[in-house]
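Holo model, flavin mononucleotide. Inputs:
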Amino acid sequence: MSEWMSALSLTKPVIQAPMAGGLVTPRLASAVSNEGALGSLASGYVSPQALEKQLIEMKELTDRSFQVNLFVPEERQMPEAELVEKWKARIPRAKDAKPFSDLKEEWNDFEEKAELLIRYGVKACSFTFGLPPEETAEKLKKSGCFLFGTATTPEEAKAFEERGMDAVILQGIEAGGHRGSFLPVKGEPALGLMALIPQAKDALNIPVIAAGGIFDRRGVQAARCLGADGVQVGTPFLLCEESSASPAYQKAIAESKGADTRLTTLFSGKQARGIVNQFMKTYEADEGKTLPYPLHNTLTKPMRGHAAQSGDAEYMSLWAGQSAAKLEGPTDVKTVLEELCES
Ligand SMILES: Cc1cc2nc3c(=O)[nH]c(=O)nc-3n(C[C@H](O)[C@H](O)[C@H](O)COP(=O)(O)O)c2cc1C
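Output:
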């Protein structure tokens, strides 16, 4: 058994990916942890108060390790007013979006959430969208929290190692949801796991966890052959009865084929992989011309919320990795984990 697994008392080398947007509930994450893998809560778009409620619930549902994911605050600049107005006029229901000035508070709750993790003795924490400040990483580590960073290049992985992380999650281009990229690159921050795992493994002295497109034992074994010490898996858990993904979202995943997903900035202003739908097709020519993250996300929120409520998959963000084509669902946590590793 790898050391990172012993540190977290895991019997399976699998992390259920944190998936922000209300998709992962304590019920799902605790079911994963209770099976001997690492369940994860996503704190993105969740207030500190709501996160605390989930932590309390989590403690009632499992006494095993689980992870909480934190979005690292990025430097943000307000875009030109003209661009804001242009998008407000074009995105369906954008007039119902929260005013940007109200977002200030939301952008600054990172430290408050880190304090909650310490207060509740959370055993593991992962960071995405950048490096955590040194003092925060140190405080969490001192509290006994195992730290994971999310990297999309070997350079980002190295930067996390130097920031004191205990392990790095390598997010391949196959992965569903937002890219964790944060350092500039000469080419594209778009490495497939086949290239990324060995490059990062050879450059690092800490465990590396592979994420992106993995859904069964073949993927786990391939990742391990390339040097990965474990895997992080997201999309397959969206089809579990324990997940709170909407039926329309689950149907879109179950019906998707081969190359039905792509990276887009159109929903949030940051690159993320999802199943192509009408919204993505309509605004395709505007890829890369959106407002910065998370402002664009705020503008599309009322549209996405309405679509989710009315079961209209054409206007929801259908985040999914390249494994989506092989998923059928419905399923449950136990079955997903059995597909990934022998019990
Ligand atoms: C719906 C969805 C939401 C996600 N949200 C987060 C998140 O909040 N934080 C994070 O670090 N990663 C997030 N990810 C990325 C995952 O951590 C992971 O990289 C990805 O799920 C792996 O690819 P797979 O979905 O093909 O298994 C999300 C992925 C999906 C599919």
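The first helix runs from residue 3 to 7. The chain has a mean pLDDT of 96.
Archived with the compound record.
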